[in-house]
Each structure stands twice: as C-alpha cells, then as structure tokens.
Write a structure and sequence with these properties.
The protein is of the alpha/beta class and 496 residues long. The chain contains 16 helices and 15 strands. It has helices at 41-59, 86-94, 98-115, 131-143, 158-164, 175-180, 224-234, 248-261, 295-300, 312-320, 332-354, 366-384, 389-407, 418-435, 446-462, 466-478; strands at 6-9, 14-17, 25-30, 63-68, 147-150, 153-156, 197-202, 218-220, 238-244, 269-275, 278-280, 283-284, 328-330, 481-486, 489-494. Strands 4-3-9-10 form a four-stranded parallel sheet, with helices on both faces. The structure holds one RNA strand of 74 nucleotides.
Length: 496
RNA sequence: GGUAACGUGGCCGAGUGGCUAGGCUCAGCUCUGCAAAAGCUGCUACAGCGGUUCGAAUCCGCUCGUUACCUCCA
C-alpha cells in the first residue's frame, strides 16, 4: 500500500527509488564530526537528518548497519606543508594531550546527540584507530599508479586518475575549470598539480600526532579515513553515503576517487545523500565565519541572539520542519514557533492515549473513515518522497486536528471503524516517535510540583481530611517519594 | 572568474502545470466561573518583465536580488 522510499542521489542528480544492494540489509556511512570543538546547530542538522533516515529504514524493516566516524586526526589546518593538525593545534592551546582533546569533544558530542534523541550508530570508528587500513589503501593506489611519493609524503595524482575515470562526477566539477581557478597556496611545492591531494603527509619534527609508514613517520591525509573505514565495515560498494553539503567537494569527490583508484574500483556508495546548510541571517553558519551557535548555548539560551533556552526536542523539530535539502534559516523567532509546534504535536500524543475505542454503538461514517485513512497515508507519502519531513509534519498536523476533534467529541468516535482508529493511532505515534524521533520532554520542575502537592497535603492534614492525606501519600509512594511529618514541618525524601 | 542553487503571504516553511500545504503571529467566533487547551473563520502569497499553454508559484528566456561550493567546515 505504501509506495517506496525515494532519495535524491547527488551522483545522478535525481530522485531514485531506494533499492538496497542486499536486502534486507542496508549499509549506510555518514561523515561524522571532527572533534576539536563544540558541536553546533549545523552538526545537529546533518546528524538529525541521517538519524531520521536510519530510523525510517529500520521502521521499514531493513537491517541497517549505520557507520558514522569520529575524525580525530588528519585534518590539516591548511594545505601547506607546515600545516598543523587541527586536533594538535587545539591541544597545544590548552596544554592537553591531543587524545585528551579528542576524548573531551567526543564526549560532548555524544551527550548532545543523546539529548537530540539521535540514535548512536552501529559502528563509530575513529580515524586514529584505522591507520593500518589507510596505509593499506595508499599502497593500493600507488600500485595502481595513481599516486606518487615525494619527500616522504604521498599525493593522489588527480590528472592521471582523470584519464581513466571522471574526477568531478559527484560535484559536477570539470577538471580544466578547477585548474584555471585554483588559488596559489603556500607549501605546495611537492605536488605535481594543485588539484592533487595528500594521502600521507610526512610529519615535521614538532608534530606530535604521527605514525610509522613505508614512506615516513607521518599521518594520513584528510579524505582517506572515510574511504578506508567505510570499506572495512561496509564493503567496497555499499548503499548510502551521507554528509553535509559542504563535504561534497572536495571531501566526497576525493573519497570516490580513492575508492576507484584503490583495488576497490568502486564509487563506494550507490546513493550519495547530502543535507543542506543552516544559515543565520541568510549566511551559512560555519566555523570559518565564526557565526555558529553551539548546541549548548541553544539548550541553555546563553547565546546573545536568543531570548530563551530551547530544548533539544524544539531544536530537533525546528530542523525537521524544513526539508533536508533546503537551506534552513535560523532565528530566535523561528525557534519560538518551533517550540509551540513541537508542544502541539506532543499534546496530540497525550490526547491519543486518552482516546478509547469501543465497539459499542458504532455507526461507521464511510466518508470520514476514508478521509482519515487518506490523511494517515499522506504522512508516509511525505516521508517516501525524499524524506520530506516538512510535508510529513504538515500531514501530522492535519491528522492532529481530527484527533483533537474526536477527543472533544466534535467528531463522533463511534463513526470510526476499528481499523481506522488503529491506523490513526499507530500512524501518528509511530511517525512522531519512531521515525521523527520526537519524544516528550517534561518541562515540569519536579521540586516545584512536589512543593505544590505538599501544600495540598498540609492543607488536608489541617482540615483532617485523612482520606485525602492517605491518597496523596499513596500516590507519592508510587513515585518513590515518601512524606515525612516532622515537628519542624513537612518534608519529603526518596524512598529507600 | 567557474559551477550550482534560491527568491512564496507579518515571520518560518512545503509545493508533482489545473484542486486549502503546514506551523507561528494577529483578528473574530464556539466552548469556558476566569483562563488555558481545542475547534471554526478571516488575513489567500508566489522578485520583476516577457514567452509556451485552454490554464504556470510550478516549464522557457531575460532582468534584478540573495546564497553556496571552488580553501578546513555538518
């Protein structure tokens, strides 16, 4: 009854029906964060997007192996020979071991992702743990004559590669245009062409992060880890490769080149999926522009652009209310609207739980049943159409209107068939919770609520309404709270 | 300069050539002890100018404007 999931494939520039290579198994690789700074809203968008894809594939019964890496080595500060490793730069700044910095920001990243209800991947490999695999891949590319060694460093020979392959197929670049428009960067003397990129870099004496290799003590190039790790865990050809749009060129282009040039001879993934950027006042939010908003600042409301704190689920809803391939503009106002929308959706969940269907006296209204079935179908239609969560959410709100009307008796519950009722309930709940990954987050301040209850308790005691007193005690006990009548007043404690 | 997008009502944001996207805001109504919630109604837009078409926000062209990638970046 449902149509199939279509995804926009950057490689072919069109939407394609998703067919896994080895159903029911699906292999998915997503470029993870470089752990040298606080996760920000941009990270959230990418990882929430692919989290929904992961969830939806699983919802459809696929057995997904989701690999998302942690980049803890290898990203140069610039393309110059004296370029410092990003991790290392930060480490020197803070007088910490590089791996200490890596661990710290990895932890922060994990915490933030958990708050956003982003499921952990099945495998989360680290670049530093796969040096051997990367060296292996470099050897293969050298064997195939598509890389060359200079002074202990190894570079990918883009022009040689382009004779038998198409460098630029993913991002639509033309190699001659690239050559004409390359900037002059310092420290590129070793390269035969400015387009060539490093597979292995010899470490300068001061460089801490270094590993032995056949060519020098050094470190792997920026793009290699994803090629090596995706191949190790998903095979030479797998189903989906995801990442932010800004990684399309050169990162993903280089990945394809590396895969083709090694013994893999493959584009790596069959579907390349890219999520768009978050903008702020119409400009891309990015590290280089210094205009990014950390997730922590968002959650705590500490950023100067924010009037309030915005909960993780509000942020998640905000992201999901736009299609992942459109740029999404950030503003305090938009977040305000997102919060309301999110809460509205959550209230629907509660209302749905309170609805009880009874076979008695039901007089099915054919048109109403049809309408509701169609509204439910619309939710899936949106998801299947290139994961259009914006449309899905719009459909959910349409469904919610009916749910609320049923709850208030403005629409008679008896007019529904059992099947329609179940569809209504399952569709709404499943999509909101399982697929979109939105969950209730209690904003209630427990202590405050407890104080309120204790006031009632006190009042009941004073008026000697002991049945009330007993029932309050009993209810609180269910929550693991005991009331203590002290001479000094009333207090509570966790039940031990 | 090269390449690729985009320009939708007060704001955000969907949109497959013809049929109400949706959310937020605002106004009114129903309900309500007051409120809140919820429902209903209204504010009905597609940058501009041409063209194709019976019909275009949707296709084509031009103009204006904005952005992204080309350099680390989700």
């Amino acid at each position: 009854m449902q149509q199939k999931l279509s995804l926009y494939n950057t490689l072919t520039r069109k939407k394609e029906v998703f067919e896994p290579l080895h159903a029911p198994h699906v292999g998915m690789y997503v470029c993870g964060p470089t752990v040298y700074g606080e996760p920000h809203l941009g990270h959230a968008r990418s990882f929430v997007t692919f989290d929904v894809l992961y969830r939806y594939l699983r919802y459809n019964g696929y057995k997904v192996r989701y690999v998302r890496n942690i980049t803890d080595v290898g990203h140069l500060e610039n393309d110059a020979d004296e370029g410092e490793d990003k991790i290392e730069k930060r480490a020197k700044l803070e007088h910490l071991e590089p791996m200490e910095v890596v661990q710290h920001y990895t932890n922060v990243f994990h915490q933030d992702m958990e708050k956003l209800n982003v499921l952990p991947p099945d495998i989360e490999p680290r670049a530093s743990g796969h040096i051997i695999e990367q060296i292996q891949m470099i050897s293969e590319i050298l064997e195939n004559g598509l890389a060359y060694e200079v002074n202990g460093s190894v570079y990918f020979d883009v022009q040689a590669y382009n004779k038998g392959h198409n460098y630029g197929k993913l991002s639509g670049r033309v190699i001659d245009d690239l050559l004409n428009n390359t900037r002059e960067l310092e420290g590129q003397q070793d390269k035969r062409s400015p387009l060539d990129f490093a597979l292995w870099k010899k470490a300068s004496p001061a460089h801490i992060m270094r590993w032995p290799s056949p060519w020098s003590d050094g470190f792997p190039g920026w793009h290699l880890e994803c090629s090596a790790m995706s191949r190790k865990y998903l095979g030479t050809t797998f189903d989906i490769h995801g990442g932010g749009l800004d990684l399309m060129f050169p990162h993903h282009e280089c990945e394809i080149a590396q895969s083709q040039a090694s013994h893999s001879h493959s584009d790596a993934a069959r579907y390349w999926v890219h999520s768009n950027m978050i903008t702020i006042n119409g400009q891309k939010m990015g590290k280089s522009l210094g205009n990014f908003i950390n997730l922590r600042e968002l959650f705590s409301g500490s950023h100067k652009m924010l009037t309030d704190q915005y909960s993780p689920m509000t942020v998640r809803f905000f992201i999901l209310q736009a299609h992942y391939r459109s740029p999404l503009d950030f503003s305090n106002e938009a977040l305000q609207a997102a919060r309301k929308g999110y809460l509205k959706l959550m209230n629907g969940l509660r209302v749905l739980d309170k609805l009880e269907y009874s076979e008695e006296g039901h007089t099915p209204d054919e048109k109403l049943n049809e309408d509701l079935q169609k509204l439910a179908q619309d939710c899936f239609r949106g998801l299947n159409d290139d994961m259009n969560t914006a449309r899905t959410i719009a459909s959910l709100f349409n469904l919610l209107k009916k749910i609320n009307s049923l709850y208030l008796g403005q629409l008679p519950l008896q007019a529904l068939t059992r099947g329609t009722f179940d569809t209504l309930q399952n569709t709404y709940k499943d999509i909101v919770q399982e697929v979109l990954g939105l969950k209730e987050e209690s904003s209630l301040d427990t202590e405050e609520m407890l104080d309120l209850v204790l006031d009632f308790y006190k009042e009941a005691k004073e008026t000697k309404a002991y049945d009330k007193v007993d029932s309050i005690r009993a209810e609180l006990k269910k929550q693991g709270i005991v009331i203590k009548d002290l001479k000094s007043g009333i207090d509570w404690a966790y039940e031990e």
